User: Fold this.
Amino acid sequence: MRGDEPGWQLRRVFRLPSTRARAGTLVDEELRFHLEGRVEELMARGLGRDEAAAEARRRFGDTDSYRRATAAIDEQIIQEQRRMDVFDVVTRETRQAVRSLARSKGFTLTAVSTLALALGAATAIFTMLYAVVIRPLPYHDADRLVALSSPVPKFKGDTLWGLARHEIFYFKQNSRALADIGVYQNDQLTVSGTGPDRPAERVRAARASANLFNVLGISAELGRTLLPDDNRERQGSVLVLGHDYWVQRFGGDRGIVGRTIDVGGFPMTVVGVVPASAQLPDLRIDVWAPAYVYAEQPAYNNHTWNGVGRLRAGFTAADAQRELVPLTQRLPELFPQAESRKFLESTGFYTQVRPMRDVVVGEVMTRALWILFGSVLIVLLIAAANLSNLFLVRIDARRREIALRAALGAGRMRLVIHALTESTLIALAAGVLAVGLAAAGLRILLTVAPTELPRLAEVHLGAAGVAFAAGSALLVALALGLLPSLGASTLDLSPLRDGGRGMTTSRRRHAVRSALVVSQVALSLVLITAAGLMVHSFRNLRAVRPGFDPTGVLTMTVALPEGRFGSRNDRDVGSYERTSALYEQLAERVRSLPGVMAVGFSEKIPLASGFLCTGVNIEGADPTRTRGACPPTALVSPGFFEAMGIRLDGRTPSWSGMDQHDGAMVVSRAFAESTWPDETAFGKGLKYYGSTPPFYRVAGIATDILGDGYDQPPVAIAYFPMLPIPGAILWGAPTGMHLVVRTRSGNPIALASGIRRMVTELEPQAAITNVETMDALVAKSMARRTFTMLLLGVAATMALLLSVVGLYGVISYVVGQRRGEIAIRMALGARMAQVGRTVVGQSVRLAALGVVLGLVGALASLRVLRSLLFGVSPTNPPLMAGAALLLLVVAAVAGYAPARRAARVDPAEALRSE
Amino acid sequence: MPAPPELELLRGTLDLLILRTLSWAPMHGLAVLRWIESATRERLQIEEGALYPALHRMEQKGWLGAEWGYTDQGRQAKFYRLTAAGKRQLAAEVSKWTRYTETVGFLLAAEPAP
Assistant:
C-alpha cells in the first residue's frame, strides 16, 4: 500500500457530473491518473519515459473501449440520479407545501371548496354536453349518417315533413353522395295479452324499410332483420324484436324466432331479434315492423317517411344537399300526380339533408347546452379569480418569508416551484372533490333535465368528465402557480429593510387584484342578466293562455285491438261504429267516478301529439283556385271540449247528436278566419273524401289551442266527429284515442287505476299508455327552458356570491393595508362616517367599473340566447339596469364590513403598531 | 521487472477482489490495483483497464460510493469506498467463494473406494 491512499483528505471538489460531456471528461481524468501513476512508477523502477508509457498502456489493455464502457455506465448513473433528484424535489416540495397549507387552514379550505364547487359544476355540465352533443352517435361510421326531410317554410314555419315514398327511390337512384336511404315511421302497436299476468301492452314500434338496418349498421343477434319483400305487404306479417323487449316480454327465449304472436288482433311472426344497441337515432324501439314501401308504388303527395341516408366515403351532408336541390326541382316534371309546380312554389317545399347528429340533439338544445357550459366556465373563471386574489394576499402576507428565502439563495425557480406545488395540491384536492360533486350534481341534473333530451339515459360521469376535471384543475393550478412571478420580475428584497414595504410590487399586485375583481363583477353581470332573461321568458311563457285549461285534467291513450275494432278499409263504416260504441261506454263509466266533471276522447291532445295536416275539401271552393285546405285534424268525441277546457262558440257536440249523424263539427277560430275570411264559418261544409254532399257542418268555433307548445303559433285545427256520417267517411276508425278526464281533484292521476280496470272490463285486449296529467305535459313542454333557466340561475347565483366574496376580500385587504393612513386621518379629525364612506365608495367604484364592462359584454354576447328566449329581447334595459343595481348594492354591502372595521380603528393603537 | 504472472483471473472474481480490497480503506483505482498486485504477490494477470468498468458498475449498483478527492501528493483522484450494501455483498461473495473452493477441494481430494 502506497502512502497516498489512507489519511486522504476528502474534499468535495465536484458535485455529480451533470452532462454527458462532463461524464466523459471525468472518466478520462480518472484513467489518465491511472496511466500517469503507472508511468511514474515504472520510471521509478528505471524505465525510460517512452518505454514506461508503452508498458503502462500495454498493461491497461484497450484504453478506448474501457473508456467508452466506463463512460456508458456513468451516463446511466447520471440518468438514474436525475430521476431521483426530481423525485426528491417533488417529495420535498410537496411535504413543505402540505405543511404550509396545513398551517393556514382557512386559506386552504376556502381555496379548495371554492374551486371544487366551480369545477364540479363545470364537470357536471361538461359531462352532459359530452354525452348528449359531442360524443358520436352509437352507429358504425356515425358521421356518415344524414337525416332527410322536407321543410315547407311558406306553409308552416318550423314544420318538417318527411319523404314521400317515390322520392326515396328517385333520390337513391340519382344521388352520388348518398349510398343508400332507409326510411321509418314511428308507430305504436298493441301486443295482445296472454293472461292476467301478461296483459295487453302498447309498445314503441318503428315501421322500417329493410335497408334501414344496413344504413344504421344493425344486424340481427337472432334470426334475421327485415327483407325487402317484407316491405311489400300492406299490413305486414313479420316482426323483429328489440333485445330489451325480447327479454322483458319473452324472457329472452331463444326459441322465439318463427313464433307467431298476436299484435292488436293480427298474427305476426317474429323473424329475429336485434341487439339492445339497435335503436332509432332519436327513440328507443321495442319492435320493428315492416314499412309498406317499395319502388313500384304509385307516386303520392304524402310526405310521412323519416329518411336516414348513409353518405358514401368522401361526401358530406352539404354535397348531398347540393345534389338534392335540382333533383327536387324536377319532381313536378317526373311525378306530376304527386307534386305540382304550384305545390312546390306555394309551400316552399324542398328536401333537406342534415347530419344526423344535429337532428337528433336539435339545434336549440345543442345551443342551450353550450350556453350552459359557457356559463359554468365563466363561474370557474370567477372562482379562479377569487383564488388568484387569495394567493396574492397570501404571497403579500409572506413577503418577508419569501424575501428571506430569496436572500438566502433560493432561486427564482425554487420560489415558482414552491408556489406551483401549493397550487397543484389545492387544485388536485379540489379536482377530486369536484368529481364527487359532479357525480352527485349529475344525479340531480338528470331529474330536472328535459326528458325530450336525447341520449339522456347514457349520461354518466365517465373518463371524459374525469379528464375534463383533471385538465381544468391542472390549468388552474398552473395559472395560480405562475401568479407570484407576475408583478415580481425581479426578486424583491425590500420587505427585509426595516419597515420597508416593497411598495412598488405591492402596488402592482393591488392593481392585479382590482382588475380581477372588476372582471368578476363584469362576468357576473353577464350571467345574472342571462339568468334574468330566462326567468323573464319563463314567466312570459307561464302567463300564456294556451286555449285549454290543463288544471285537473288526466289523459291516457286507450288503444283498442285493431284486428277487431279497426279495419284495413278506411271506408268500412262498421269499424267506426264499433270503436265509437266502445269509447262511448267507457266515457259513461268514467263519468260515474267521483270528482269527474267531464270526459271525452280525441285523436290528438295538445303538447303530446304532432299537429301535422290532413288534406280536406271545402264545400263550394273553386277547385281552380284552392286545392282544398290542409289543416291539422282530429277525430273527437262529444265531451272532449269540456274535458280539455276549450271554449266553444255555437253548439257543443253531443253524444246523441253524433250517434244520430247530425254531422256537427268544430273548427278553431284561426282556421275559420283563414278559410272563410269574409263570412261566418257556422254552417260551412268540410269533408275528407270527395267534394259532393253530404258535408260536415261547422256547428261550433273553438278557441285556438297552443298544441305545439306555448311558444309556438296556435294550431288552426278542424275537429271531426269520431263517428262519421254515411257518405262522408273519414281517414280510418280511431283505435288509439286519448281519453281526457276533467276532475275536481288535485291529484287526477289517482283515478288512473280505476279507469284502467274499467277499460279491461270492457275490452280485455285494450292497452293503456301515456297516463299523464295535462299539467305534467305542460311542464314537460317547458322543460328545456326550465332546465336552462334553473342552471343559468344556479350559475348566476354562484357568480354573484363569488364576486361578493372577491370584493369583500380585496376591500378588507386594502383597509388592512391602510390602517395607518386611516388612523392618521381619524387623528386629524375625520369622522367615522367619512372613513366608512370612503371604504364603501372604493368597493362600489370597483364594482361600477365591472358593471360598465359587464354591460358591454352582455350587449355583445347575450344574443346567443335569442332562440331560448320568449317574449323578451336579449337587450332588455330594465333587466340590465336591475342586474347592475344588484351588483352595486352588493358591492356596497361587501364594503360595509371592512368599512366598519376601518371606522373603529383606534388611531393611537394603529399608529403605534405601524 | 517482476516475474510474469502465472494465473489468469477467473471470471467473476474481480468484483470479489475489489470489494475485499476496499474493505480495508477507501482508495482510488490505481491503489486498488496495487493492493491486489501486492496481496496476490503479483501472480494474477489482470488487464488493468477492466478495473474501471467494474468499479463504475459496482458504484451504479450501490456497493461502492465514489468521490473526487486529493491524494497526499495533492493530485486529484476518484476515491472509492465500500458502502453498507457493499459490505453485505462482500460477505455474500466471500462465503460463496469459500463454499465453491471447498466443494472443488472435496472433489480433488476424493478417491475412488478401494
Summary: The helical segments of chain B are 13-22, 29-39, 51-60, 84-109. Chain B has a mean pLDDT of 88. Chain B touches chain A at residues 1, 25-31, 33-35, 38, 47-50, 52-53, 55-57, 59-60, 67-73, 75-79 (CB under 8 Å). The longest strand of chain B covers residues 64-70.
